[in-house]
Amino acid sequence: AQSVTQLGSHVSVSEGALVLLRCNYSSSVPPYLFWYVQYPNQGLQLLLKYTTGATLVKGINGFEAEFKKSETSFHLTKPSAHMSDAAEYFCAVSGAGGTSYGKLTFGQGTILTVHP
Amino acid sequence: EPEVTQTPSHQVTQMGQEVILRCVPISNHLYFYWYRQILGQKVEFLVSFYNNEISEKSEIFDDQFSVERPDGSNFTLKIRSTKLEDSAMYFCASTRTGSYEQYFGPGTRLTVT
């Protein structure tokens, strides 16, 4: 079984400030981890993913995340927030292979607000 | 860039009616999924589909739900007798063999009155 917990349903930052969105996961198999972004009235867009290899992964729009197995975490960061980053962010986990191929389990989502 | 498309964007139906939500996955993708997002809640997995059969389904996906790939391009979700609690945004996703990166469509907002 897999689960994802996103700490903080709302995060507010000033433009130019560091963005940190927290994600912890639980998985009985080696996890594949994802961050998706959802802009108002739009679908889910993949920001970045971790499958294997380097634990620090870079994504689109200047975001990055680090897989920390010991902490079961996959926090999303961006050094400097931009107004256009305002959206809802979802962390998700999937397991490798078997009948659960690719099935994503999502966290509750974090709404990011960016103030001028 | 290829993308997943979904129709309609918004569907309003009366309780007890049947609805069919349509999706066109990316053409070389072989794994297909439906998810739903009730307003204010997390995105939930409904069903995965591969090689013309269901690979896995969640407990939400009961006998009222069915999926079909009627031709080489469409992937549909049917709800036989809609309930008020079926009101949600329904997302279709697809991925190719060997990849865990799912591409999502823009969603269909289903409103059951």
Note the topology:
The complex is a heterodimer of chains A (116) and B (113).
Chain A: E1 2-7, E2 10-14, E3 19-27, E4 31-38, E5 44-50, E6 56-58, E7 64-68, E8 73-78, E9 87-95, E10 105-106, E11 110-115
Parallel strand pairs in A: 2-11
Antiparallel strand pairs in A: 1-3, 3-8, 4-5, 4-9, 6-7, 7-8, 9-10, 9-11
Chain B: E1 5-7, E2 10-13, E3 19-24, E4 31-37, E5 43-50, E6 53-57, E7 65-68, E8 75-79, E9 88-95, E10 103-104, E11 108-112
Parallel strand pairs in B: 2-11
Antiparallel strand pairs in B: 1-3, 3-8, 4-5, 4-9, 5-6, 7-8, 9-10, 9-11
What's this entry about, in short?
By secondary structure, chain A is mainly beta. Chain A has no helices and 11 strands. By secondary structure, chain B is mostly beta strands.
Features:
heterodimer, A: about 120 residues, mainly beta, 11 strands, about 0% helix, B: mainly beta, four-stranded antiparallel β-sheet
